[in-house]
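job 3f2a | input accepted
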Amino acid sequence: MGVDNFKEIAKLAKQSSKKLATLANDIKNKALLNIAEELENNKQAIFEANKKDLGSAQSLLESGEISKSVYNRLKLDENKMRDMIQGIIDIYELENPIGKILMQRSLDTGLILTKISCPIGVLGIIFEARPDVITQISALAIKSSNAVILKGGKESAQTNKTIMDVIQKALDKTEGFPKNAITQVFTREDVSQMLEQDKFIDLIIPRGGNNLVKFVKENTKIPVLGHADGICHIFVDEFADYEKAKRIVVDAKTQYPSACNSVETLLVHRKFSYKDELYKSLEESGIELIFSPESWHIEYSDTKLAVKEVESVEDAIEHINEFSSGHTESIITEDRENAQKFMAAVDSAGVYHNVSTRFADGFRYGFGAEVGISTNKTHARGPVGLDGLTIYKYTLQGNGDIVKDYAEGNKQFKHKDLV
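job 3f2a | predicted structure (419 res):
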């Protein structure tokens, strides 16, 4: 795709976003139901496309061009298809996030300031492997009235194209839904062009490994929402329940090792009475324990787990705040004071008590789905669902009011909150 063609795609997406901003919620919901229906009707064609991608990806895996975790994320089966469709239905059932009154204040009699939620505009999504991302992002974009340009990895090109064809078919039969709202591009050149379209694209969301996110952040003026690493921690406190600790750590490491919210470093209090039993049970669960400082920086995306013993909850907090990627951390303890201290002092998007880090997920949070996990300190943090795809604007209504009256003392502000 040439430069001019991509600019035209971005320009058309921007135009579509203006129409989406005022689109009736009924039309958005109808579009979502149509997509869910078409996915169900065309799932065999999607599975066939996915088989082709898996066949091609096998050679990429053998040559080392993609990792085992990337290959695993590529596979689309009945369970994932069911979850994809249900995710769309869940988003359909959520409240419309656009046009919500977030604050309303009377500055003076008849002078009303209102803070209202509105869409961001045009989203640029760059993702690797997982073809279910397309339906998640598209559904969230539709419900939040954003246009979106999607760029998937080459390893899932056939699946991505087939799913997008199904989505476009659904949107084409949705009366009143604007054209060019959901677009897909395919080449490496498209990524470079996307990152240059700061005139038309309002937010870039990369979903993939550290190298992808780092490249995106270093090569665009457009705001970027995402996370580079998923180095998550679990701290087993001196006062942890052994059975809880074992179940939680095993789940966080083995339930889906390649997920960004799987645990990568286990911190264990030196005085924890069952630490030897814990290590043994983890190894029996197929987890390779690595007692080395070099492992504290590594996101394995595998059944390998870094382990460090610490002297106190304060030591655990200090280690996490130094080595964590700011994603998700958990403390296992029956001591409420230590739990509260940990949850207040750890500076990550998700901080848990007595639960697996694998809960860091938009679907599990009840967001319907997510566009990704953000470790940013501004706008959106953690699993980013509908609210994370909205921003706000201020409206001011009056009756011929001018600043001069207040500057000269003829009128005074009253500043009374109404909502």
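job 3f2a | The mean pLDDT is 93.
job 3f2a | closed
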